[in-house]
Design goal:
Elements: H1 3-13, E1 39-44, H2 49-58, H3 63-69, H4 85-94, H5 98-101, E2 107-110, E3 126-129, E4 152-155, E5 158-161, H6 164-167, H7 173-179, E6 185-187, E7 206-208, H8 221-237, E8 252-257, H9 259-265, H10 281-291
Parallel strand pairs: 1-8, 6-7
Antiparallel strand pairs: 2-3, 4-5
Length: 294
């Protein structure tokens, strides 16, 4: 049983998806309408609309094909510009573009910041790196953010570090859920994904971020890494935290998966044609892992 099938099965055991107002919501519920209480957000790096279309056509009984039969599919959506896991995820959890979120890329530049360790002296202007380089140990699977590696800014006359969540200029869906009494959980590839906490720093109750550079980022090791994320999500849906403690089933939960992206970039992976219609054997395995049954 592969990633998406497992997530779909366990989600069906939970009580559906978080209720949020929309343009068609009159504020009343029909007697037969199920209340939506839980949202699972799965983010697959490198997965294109063309990949989904081709996969469903070739695998009509796959988990993704089954899911799409009872889903609303937005097939004319666009990713962030630039597109990568960091700005892409920020777009998903905020609804904002880099212009509004203030986050162009995981490594960019801010004219008002100062370099790490500078004590805010000298001419302002510093690289804002929110990737594995801010870890205490970027080659360890279990690590955390080293404040000494963070850019600095002057705040009320004091020189302070700027954490990832403080770099974000807008709130996140996790913060909205928290304000409405929901438990929240997310898993991603670097401790720098603290950014999903939002400006409050409190958006995600259980943030699980094993460092992806702590393993071999090639197949099949990357599947093992993604399985860490999957297991965390499955445990949350059972009411178990990333540390094994009892928790409420989160109102919003989910995580990022890297195997497709890694397989696209690997020398033995990618596509066999120039239009992205013929995946290599390595990429086929990655797509199967994410989208299909065993």
């Amino acid at each position: 049983m592969h990633l998406l099938q497992k997530a779909i099965m366990i989600t069906c055991l939970a009580t559906s998806v978080l209720s949020l107002p929309n343009s068609h919501n009159t504020g009343k519920r029909s007697s037969g309408e199920k209340k939506i209480e839980h949202v699972v957000l799965l983010s697959f790096d490198g997965l294109h609309q063309s990949d989904v279309d081709a996969y469903v056509k070739a695998n009509p009984s796959s988990a993704i094909a089954t899911l799409l039969k009872t889903s609303v599919e937005f097939d004319n959506a666009q990713t962030s510009k630039p597109s990568d896991s960091f700005p892409g995820l920020i777009a998903q959890v905020t609804g904002g573009s880099p212009k509004t979120t203030g986050v162009f890329y995981d490594v960019s530049y801010d004219r008002t910041f100062f370099d790490p360790g500078s004590n805010c002296t000298g001419t302002p202007g510093a690289v804002t790196a929110y990737d594995e380089t801010i870890d205490f140990n970027s080659t360890a699977l279990v690590t955390s953010i080293n404040p000494a590696n963070l850019p600095k800014t002057l705040k009320n006359g004091q020189c302070v570090e700027v954490t990832p969540h403080e770099f974000l200029k807008v709130n996140t869906i996790f913060e909205v859920a928290k304000k409405n009494g929901f438990f929240t959980a997310w898993t991603d590839k670097h401790p720098a994904y603290d950014i999903v906490n939002g400006p409050s720093g409190q958006g995600v109750d259980d943030l699980y971020t094993p460092e992806i550079n702590g393993i071999n980022t090639v197949e099949p090791d990357i599947q093992v890494y993604d399985t860490l994320h999957l297991n965390a999500i499955l445990n949350w849906l059972k009411g178990v935290s990333s540390t094994g403690k009892s928790i409420p089933v989160p109102g919003i939960l989910g995580g990022n998966f890297q195997v497709i992206s890694v397989s696209e970039k690997d020398s033995a992976g990618g596509y066999l044609d120039t239009v992205g219609q013929q995946p290599s054997d390595e990429l086929k395995k990655a797509l199967d892992f994410c989208l299909n049954y065993t």
